Amino acid sequence: MVSLSVRLAGVELKNPVIPASGTFGYGREYAELYDLDLLGSFSWKGTTAQSRPGNPQPRIAETASGMLNAVGLQNPGIDAVIAEEVPNIAKIFHGPVIANVGGFSLQEYAENCAKLNDVEQVSILEVNISCPNVHAGGRNFGSDPKAAAEVTRAVKAVPRKPVFMKLSPNVTDIAEIARACADAGADGICLINTLLGMRIDLKTKKPLIANRTGGLSGPAVFPVAVRMVWEVAQAVKVPILGMGGVSKGEDAAQLRAYLETHLCPGETAELWNLWVGDGPARAFRFAGPLAALEPDTLEQLFEQAQTCLTIEI
User: Fold this and answer.
1) How far apart are CA 159 and CA 223, in angstroms?
2) How many Cα atoms occupy the beta-carbon half-sphere of 108 within 13 Å?
3) Gap between the terminal Cα atoms of the chain
4) Cis peptide leading into 192, omega within 30 of 0?
């Protein structure tokens, strides 16, 4: 049986299957239905310094080939996560965990990351810079290269773990943002986050979501993800976690195959060895069949994966 293990910024994962942040919570609900140890890792939901109730309801709306959400970073706060969720994660999952960290100021980002230094199972910090900067008129940190670099430097000054910056696709030039993060010391880049969208209730003439706008995810965003991964892969020389609309093996192969072609002589596969699905239950359909395959090449692996994994749920 072929080994599916991969290394990401020095962290070894048993396979490249990772449910994306937000969709998987802290793993509790899915542990009741699946064996989480089938996964390479999972990225827990965005966690901030203080607990957040999230946005008012309704905050989810279906769209063609996707959905809008404006959950609003609902979470119990970093201290509660460390005290309550981390011990539970250790019981239900025995691999390295990716901690998604949010913040509304440079200080909050840095303090949240510092608190995770001593959490042994957390192996990578995924810093979500789609959050609004309360000291800059609410503008998202990830929409400006200078602000993105400032967050990167702030968090790199405190943690002893690899730091990956999660980028927003709602920008003019995502490669410029990625370069700013890499130049500021980021160990890797994650992309894409959700695309900003809106739906209108024709009866009320009002938005379907109370927050008016929401983040679009699902298969509809996949071509955008591929394009942005392509742009960033040409702009930086750090590992990339590609995500956004991945719903079957063929999608993962597209993200992975492109990055493979852009490796320079002597570079490791670390630049292209991870993919993330934003349909969390699908991840288990990926992991099981992949582990049973014995392909001669990665191309054959994903060709077979496409055959096995086209069922969507």
Assistant:
1) 34
2) 22
3) 27
4) yes
Q: Is the pLDDT of residue 14 over 90?
A: no
What integer pLDDT is reported at residue 213 of this predicted model?
Answer: 93
Write out pLDDT tens, residues 179-199. Answer: 999 999 999 999 999 999 999
Q: Which amino acid is at 136?
A: A
Q: What is the 3-state secondary structure (H, E, C) of 179-209?
A: HHHHHCCCCEEEECCCEEECCEECCCCEECC
Instruction: State the CB neighbour count (10 A cutoff) for residue 267.
Output: 11
Q: Which residue has the tokens 């742009």?
A: 231
Q: 101 pairs with which residues across the strands?
A: 47, 127
pLDDT digits (tens, 9 = 90+) for 246-300: 877 777 777 766 655 554 443 333 333 343 444 555 666 556 555 544 444 444 4
Position 125 scores a pLDDT of: 97
- Distance, in Å, from the CA atom of 282 to the CA atom of 248, rounded to the nearest integer, reads 8
Residue 194 one-letter amino acid: T
Omega prior to 58 cis, within 30 of 0: yes
Which amino acid does the sequence have at 137?
G
The mean pLDDT of 104-131, rounded to a whole number, is: 94
Q: Which of 113, 131, 181, 190 is catalytic?
A: 131
| Angular region, 253: left φ>0, alpha ψ -120 to 50, beta rest | alpha
Average pLDDT of the chain is 82
* Tokens 């093996």 -> residue: 249
Q: Is 131 a catalytic residue?
A: yes
For residue 69, give the DSSP letter: E
Contacts of 118 (CB under 8 A, 6+ apart): none
The runs of H, that is alpha helices, within the chain are: 28-31, 78-80, 86-92, 106-115, 145-156, 174-183, 222-235, 249-261, 280-292, 298-308
Residues 276/248, Cβ–Cβ less than 8 Å:
no
